[in-house]
Amino acid sequence: MQIHEVRTRRSAEDFPRTEHLAWKIAEVAADPVAVPADTQEMVLNRIIDNAAVSAASVTRGPVTVARVQAQAHRAKYGAGVFGIPGTYSPEWAAWANGVAVRELDFHDTFLAADYSHPGDNIPPLVAVAQQLDVRGSDLIRGLATAYEIQINLVRGICLHEHKIDHVAHLGAASAAGIGTMLRLNPATIYDAIGQALHLTTATRQSRKGLISSWKAYAPAYAGKVAIEAVDRAMRGEGSPAPIWEGEDGVIAWLLSGPEHTYRVPLPGPGEPKRAILDSYTKEHSAEYQSQAPIDLARRMRERIGDLEQIASITLHTSHHTHVVIGTGSNDPQKFDPDASRETLDHSVMYIFAVALQDGTWHHERSYAPERAHRPDTIALWRKISTVEDPEWTRRYHSSDPAEKAFGARAEITLASGEVIVDELAVADAHPLGARPFAREQYVAKFTELAEGVVEPEEQRRFLSVVDSVPDLKPGGLDELNIRVNSRVLDKAPTVGSGIFR
């Protein structure tokens, strides 16, 4: 890997385009290096993972709205929308599919200096691939790039400390990945990256306080923006530059300012793209930093016995976990039984309480209003707090995969004064966890979440197509679109009318 130092530059400074971070990323995207076998295998796993969570979310309100919007943009030659027949303008197909993927907070993740769900790159790249009849092997190349860029931006640039939403890294990554997939030149990819980043820098209020369904839409919007940016760049349109380093650029005014230097790792020329292997998916439908606490709660409940005897629970964890989903956020909504599903998804106090009581976690039942309103749950929930532990913060940011951790130490104090202590560094499904996900687990997640939504024969057809993606010829990627039983879609909520028809 090469480390690129990135800082603000004065307009009068001699700073050639080839030194811009956007150009460095464009060069990585344009590098025709082969995709390693293990990277390719993981790309296919994540396509399955996205389909699994899309099946589980297909009748939810936000997904239905996005699908209806996409249906107003039919195209003779276009892309597929999850669950339904027909072809649609690719940016709108990516929008609908992106919301379906993101709605349940149930797909892959990478955490470092910032946060990310790099699987959000899959809908826009698949949509463009279907629109332009791209080969399956080029889709894989593009996704390897998109994961590489987003993950390495997350390693090098923290957005969260400045309350900028993490989709700012996603827009640039998707633009770069599309550039790789379409075999565009560095200059075109450079302009697409600049436009995409400029249009996807937004505040983090979408994940603060009372969280709404926009949390699912924001990444889908970034994918839509990336497609449109690449289209304009391919037609010769330029971009704001240098987008990161300019006097009025992202670093100067949105991030740490002119005095700060970021260090962004990127593959060197000819170096394979393997960053996807450092990311991890979710066994549980909840914010990633609650994955290990869920498994920890399931493990500890047998030692406690009668949960009524709990006096208090303190979760010692990293700074990010404490301030994003813990009591360090100072969000009273995280203790409100009437809070939205999205808010409860970002309350480790609620999640730990329910996991302790139920010994399991479910993407629907665990968030049901009647579940959140159970008096014994509310009582236990309000006994839980988080504190930052410097050691967990250090491990969160460690560059050593064997040491990097997103877990917590739980101290459960009983009414008798006895204290039960246990800790878990990584979730069971993590590559270093007790039950790491491989192809078998991805397929099992898909079949479980698709049950009753996608007919068994259609499930088998889709999984067979995924296996054949590396060899698919132009037009073959259309087969990645999954049909959902129409009786299932009839259960989706009726949405109001809007502008699009």
Automatic annotation (TrEMBL):
It comes from the Bacteria. Transmembrane segments: none annotated. Keywords: Lyase, Tricarboxylic acid cycle. SUPFAM superfamilies: 2-methylcitrate dehydratase PrpD. It catalyses: (2S,3S)-2-methylcitrate = 2-methyl-cis-aconitate + H2O; citrate = D-threo-isocitrate. GO terms for molecular function: 2-methylcitrate dehydratase activity; aconitate hydratase activity. Monomer. This is 2-methylcitrate dehydratase. It comes from Mycolicibacterium chitae.
